[in-house]
Design a protein that fits this description.
By secondary structure, the chain is mainly α. Helix content is 73%, strand content 7%. InterPro entries: Chaperone_Skp, Skp_dom_sf.
Amino acid sequence: MKKLVKVAVVAVGLFLAGNTVNAQQKFAHINSAELLQSMPEIKAADTQMQTFQKQKQTELQQMGAEHQKKVQAYNEKEATLSQANRETVAKELETMAKEIRDMEQRMQETNDKARQEIAQKQQEVYSPIMQKAETAIKTVAKEKGFAYVFDSSQQSLVYVDGGEDILALVKTKLGISATTAATPKK
């Protein structure tokens, strides 16, 4: 019986302590997209990604131009096909058609590889920046005693009434001027 009373007292104590803690929780929100756009590192990363993407696009355009030349040569050769040279020209056309098919396959493989390399490069370039922003947000949240920080740039946040906008605090933590206007991402 004494154990039951002790358990009940402990349970009531924990319940009351839990309610007290819940009443003291603080909420905050931040627009992470605006934060990221205000970070100087993001501009350098965007430039680096644009250069990389243009390089891959140029490679694909060169392959496309070479493919177009082969198709044009095939069409010109096909125009010379006559009854007298049918056997010889038909073999040449068959060889050219195979080269064109092989080139189309290489182009597709190169395109797929380029997409993978671009995705990998994005991960490599943007991950450290996102990690830095996330660390700053967590640090500010802990310093200011926030239990929850919501990202207001996400479409899933339907309504915010109350809480504190910690964007300026996080910018200060990162050494970014709080008045720096965010430049829209292209």
